[in-house]
From TrEMBL:
Cross-referenced PANTHER family: ARSR FAMILY TRANSCRIPTIONAL REGULATOR, DNA-DIRECTED RNA POLYMERASE SUBUNIT I
Stated name of the protein: 4-vinyl reductase 4VR
Source organism (scientific name): Methanococcus aeolicus (strain ATCC BAA-1280 / DSM 17508 / OCM 812 / Nankai-3)
InterPro entries in alphabetical order: NO_sig/Golgi_transp_ligand-bd, V4R
Residues annotated as domain 4-vinyl reductase 4VR: 84-146
Lineage: Archaea, Methanobacteriati, Methanobacteriota, Methanomada group, Methanococci
Length: 147
């Protein structure tokens, strides 16, 4: 797989479509059956991918993370709890509008938030999704365990 950096990945010369894609395309890629081809559950892989992106973004503040997620239409983040830290994702790119399926779906977003916070706090961070459209909620929410 080519090793493009975030700036290269952000570049597009598409005249008609620009940088936009339909959410269906994103979700088709996102929910591919990786277990069949890679032998690992997709949530393990996308969580790590999100975390790597968070590290590469190397944000200095939580505000930067909130702006990145809004600019890239990942979701509208808000801090809803301080101890433990809880971050809500409104209009989540991954799960908003999907029917309840009995499990959380937003492992990439969780990994991304954890990876960003690891850089900000210089500590290990684990994101645990507590709310999700997959569980029947109107929003996604993550509890952050900081070690
Ligand atoms: Zn979710």
């Amino acid at each position: 797989m080519p090793k493009y950096d975030i700036n290269q990945l952000s570049t597009s010369h598409r005249k008609e479509f620009g940088r936009n894609i339909d959410i269906t395309v994103f979700r088709l890629v996102r929910f591919m059956d990786l277990k069949k081809s890679v032998g690992k559950e997709h949530y393990e892989i996308v969580y790590e991918a999100g975390k790597k992106l968070g590290h590469e973004l190397n944000p200095k503040t939580v505000e930067e993370v909130i702006i990145f997620c809004k600019d890239h239409k990942i979701g509208m983040l808000e801090i809803v709890g301080e101890n433990p830290l809880q971050i809500r994702v409104n209009e989540c790119i991954c799960c908003n509008g999907l029917p309840e399926c009995g499990e959380t779906l937003c492992h990439f977003e969780g990994g991304l938030i954890a990876g960003c916070l690891e850089k900000i706090f210089n500590k290990k961070v684990q994101a645990i999704e507590t709310h999700c459209a997959g569980l029947g909620d109107e929003f996604c929410q993550f509890e952050l365990k900081i070690y």
